[in-house]
Amino acid sequence: MRVLYQKDLFSYRRIEDIKEKFSELNELEFLVKKYNSFVVFELYQHFAKKSKLQAFADCGTYLGFDLYKHISKEEYQKRLSHANFCRDRFCEMCNWRRARKYAIENFKLLKFVQSQERVRYIFATFTIKNPRVEELKSYVKLFNQAWKRMTQSKRWRNSILGYIKAIEIPFQKTDRDYINLHAHCLLIVPSIYFDFKNYNLYIKQNEFQEMWKKALRVDYNPSVDIRIIKPNKERGEDDEIASVVAETTKYPLKSIDLNGIDWQKFKILTEQVKNMRFLSFGGIAKVYRKEIFGTDEFDDSDLIGDYDELDLSMWEKIGRLWYFLDAGKYKLHKFEKAENKE
């Protein structure tokens, strides 16, 4: 049996202390999202392939967190670095991760826009007649064609600098055979947009409604809701960008309420949304997004790396914590010490 020298003993004790301190994952939202996905899993079992079911069942069952220690304080921080996410559109775990990434990227994008342009923000919701579930794909196509026509109009181009559009598809509450198809949009406008005396840029809500109706080419009046976003002082928001991001990310990418939906209807829904994109960017939002992230589209291939970077002059990586889902809890499976770290 090898004798433990003083240096080895210190390392051993430190590792044991870390294992005890991080024996269970304290980020409870991982557990909540995992178990909320069981409703979807039950629906998928009626028609999905075995490979699909296995990926969905395994989603988020192991998580790897890089562990950092402050160089001068007894403080630790974890950063998710590995996970087996399934990336299914209806997975509550993956939708939560998408929403986090979407919010963080939008915050960076709008901060950059703010540094380059003098702008204001408007929150808008555009609707269309509710389609039946089996008509969803064709209605989304109609919606996007109308959106393109509206954004190419002279009035729009003179007043709106850019936009972020997120389509949402919840079931209609009063009749689950229909989808409440609509889009939540962040509109970026010049800072002089509200200067009514000197400029003709401001578009009233009824004018937006007429523009949208004309673009849709329908004989009814589609609902359009326009709001100016301001910091919510009651929530302690002083940063306009934080308020904008909070407002525009609380709707899209949230999980669809599937309670009371039978598997046949769910199967139709999955077929209708296959290969469909729900997030898009236009104008300066598209241009600047490509400049920052290298793409003008939202990429959900990586649902892990969405944290703010740590100041590595103050924090050092000391290892990695691996958690496995076991008996309803995320328990520490092993701790891997970082190379050359005691």
Provide a descriptive summary of the structure in words.
With 342 residues, this protein is α+β, with helices and mostly antiparallel strands. It folds into two domains: 1-85 and 315-342, no CATH class; 104-303, no CATH class. It contains eleven helices and nine strands. It has helices spanning 6-21, 28-36, 38-44, 50-58, 92-116, 136-151, 154-159, 205-216, 240-248, 263-272, 284-293, and strands at residues 62-70, 76-83, 119-127, 162-168, 182-190, 224-228, 279-283, 315-326, 329-337. A five-stranded antiparallel beta sheet has the order 6-3-5-4-7, with helices on both faces. Strands 2-1-8-9 form a four-stranded antiparallel beta sheet, with helices on one face. The longest helix is centred in the N-terminal third of the chain and has 25 residues, at 92-116. The two termini are 21 Å apart. The relative contact order is 0.19. Mean pLDDT is 89; it is low at 1-10.
Relevant terms:
11 helices, four-stranded antiparallel sheet, disordered N terminus, 2 domains, 342 residues, flat, alpha+beta
Short account of what is shown:
With 342 residues, the protein is an alpha+beta fold. It has 11 helices and 9 strands.
